[in-house]
Design brief:
Elements: E1 12-15, E2 20-22, E3 30-35, H1 42-60, E4 63-69, H2 73-83, E5 88-91, H3 96-100, E6 104-109, E7 112-117, E8 120-124, E9 130-134, H4 142-150
Parallel strand pairs: 3-4, 4-5
Antiparallel strand pairs: 1-2, 1-5, 3-8, 6-7, 8-9
Helix pairs in contact: 1-4
Family: Belongs to the peroxiredoxin family. BCP/PrxQ subfamily.
InterPro entries: AhpC/TSA, Peroxiredoxin_AhpC-typ, Peroxiredoxin_BCP/PrxQ, Thioredoxin-like_sf, Thioredoxin_domain
EC number: 1.11.1.24
Length: 155
Amino acid sequence: MLSTGIKAPDFTLKDKDGKEVSLSSFLGRKVVLYFYPKDNTPGCTREACAFAGAYIGFKQRNVEVIGVSRDSEKSHANFAAKHELPFILLSDPELTAIQAYDVWKEKNLYGKVSMGVVRSTYVIDENGVIEKVFEKVKPDTNAQEILDYLDGKAE
């Protein structure tokens, strides 16, 4: 994982509509950048729906929410439509941001070792600096944990 206090690596990836989105375009606003393994899987769906449910809280705090996975733009479009996700989902099939943010790791699932995205969230400040890192987050509580942090209720 990357450390707090360093400049967040910039990247440009495509959203669900094929539009290029750069992290640097959000300078001047805080960004919650969350990495997740795969669209339409139980944990990732719960996490995305939790962010969707809390989205108004992020907007009220002038915070942009961006989800990143290896899934295709079409997969993201279907995922966003199916679950009414109001925030940006970026497709990273080449692992550009995933590797830059050091969330591509060896995982062990039921004795099978493979490489995959470790569910993680970065809070990036208005100047593009990593303010807080949340590692191995829980899908059901990640969004609320971030809101609590933003409100000074959690470390």
